[in-house]
Input
Amino acid sequence: MEQMTELTKKVLEFLEPDSSKWAYWTSKQLLNPVSESKCMESFKERILKAVSNREKVIVAGDYDCDGISATTIMVSGLRKLGLECGFYIPDRIKEGYGLSEATVMLAHKKGYSLILTVDNGIKSKPALALSKELGMDVIVTDHHTMDEEVNCDIVVHPDLMEPCFETLCGAGIAYECMRKLGVEDDYLLQLAGLASISDMMVVKGQTRALIQNALRSINETHEKHIFSLATDRDLNETSIGFQVVPKLNAIGRLSNLANVNNVVRYFLAHDDETIYTLGSQITQMNTIRKQMSDQMQKTALLKCKSNEDIYIIEDTSFHEGIIGLVAGALCSRFNKPCIVLAKNEQGYKASMRSPEGFNCMEFLGPYKHFVVFGGHENAAGFSLNLNEFDLFEDFVHARIKEYTYSVKKKETLIITDDELSLETIQSLDVLRPFGPGFVFPSFEIIHPQIKSLYDFQNHKHRKYTLESGLQCMRFNQSEVEYKKSVNAIHSFIGTAQINQYQGRKQVNFVIDEIVYE
Output
C-alpha cells in the first residue's frame, strides 16, 4: 500500500473513507471455502442420486449473459459426472422469462425426471406446480428476490447460504454448485466471473474473489471463447462489460433472428472451427442489434419534446428486445424518466428507465391494469393490453404531476489534468474490480485549460485538447452544447481511459457531462 500513487490513494479514500479497510480493497482475494449450507448439501445429495439412478436432467436457463453462463456451467459440470444432461433457454419474445409449463411438459415427454433451473425459477409458480403434478423433481438455483416459499424440492439461493455468498449472480451459484460436486475447473470459473461482471453484482465477498480470479485466468490462458468476442488483448471488468457482454445479450434480445441456445453450444464447444463460426455469428448479430438500436434512438429522439417531465414513446417499428436499451440511452441523455413501448399482436411490451432518485416501481405502482409488471428502482418492464395504451398514457402524465422526486447530484472526485498519465491510470488496477458497491468515481476537471477543439461526424462528437496535451472526448454532444461558448465551461465530468492505437498507448478523458458557469 505504501507504493500506491497519489491518484490511487485519492480514489481509494474517496470510495472507502475507513483506512482500516484499505487492505481488503487492495489485495487479491482467495475464493471462500465451499458452502456447507443445508441447501448445498441437499443439492449434492440429489445430483449424486441422479447419477446413481442414471436419470435424465434438463437445465432450464435464462437468455441474458448470466443465464447463458449459468446454463453452460451447470451442463458442463453435470456431464462430467456422466449425467445425460440437456438444456433449454426460452425465446424472449415468444415465451418470455422463466420456466414455463410448455417447457416442463416437453421435458416430461422426453423422459427427463429432474429439472434444474439456473438464474430463474423462483417466480415460476404454474410451471413448478405442473412439475409436481407430473411427478418431476425440480431444483431451483436463483439469486432473484425470494419473498415467499418456492414450491419445489430444493432451492439453492444466496439467502440460504453463508454471508460471503450473498452477492452471487446466477452463474456464481452454478459455479458454487459445481465446486460442491468437485467438478469445477478454470473455464467454469471464467464463465462465473464473466457473468458476475455482466449482471452488475456488488463486488464484495465471493463475487469479488470470483471476478479477480476469473480475470487472471482469462488473461493467462487467453481463453478463446471470451477473447474471440473481445477487441482488447488484455481484459478487465470494464473491457469485458463493453466488448463481450453486449454481444452475448444481443442474441437473447433478437430472438426472432437468432437462437440463444446456440450461445450455450458456443461455450460448450471445444473445436476451433465451431468456436470461430459461432463467435462470428454472435458478433454479426450484435452489429445488427447496434444498427437497430441506433435507428430506434433516432426515431425516439424525434418524438421527445423538451418541455415534458417524462418521455413515453411508442412506434410501430420498435423491436421489443431493444426498447430497454433505447429507454436507457434517452434517460442518460436527458436525465429524465423514460418509457419506450413496442407493439405486437397481443399488446404492448414496455421498458422504463429513470435517473437516480426516481423510483420506477413506486411511480408505476398505482396503475392496476398491467398484464405483467416487474423491475426495481431505476428499471422496470411491463406489458399492456392492445386497447390500453391511451389509458396508460393518461395515467403517466397525471402521475408525473403529483409524483415528487429529486435527482441525486453526482458526486465527483476533483482532479487536475496533470494527475492523469499512463502510469497513474495503470496504478488504479490495484483496486480492481470496480462495480456496484465500489464504483469507479467520476473525475471532475475544474476550469480546463482548452488549447483547441475539433468537431467530427457532422458535429456529433467533439475533441478538446488541453494545454497539458490531454485529449478530452465528448461523444453525442447536443445542439445546445455545440453552440455554447467554450469560455462558459466551468468543468468536465467523466472518466479517464487508456486507448491503444497502432501499438501506442495514450490517456483520453471521456466527458460524461459539461458543467457551464
Remarks:
- The first strand starts at residue 56 and ends at 60.
- Residues 272-302 form the longest helix (31 residues).
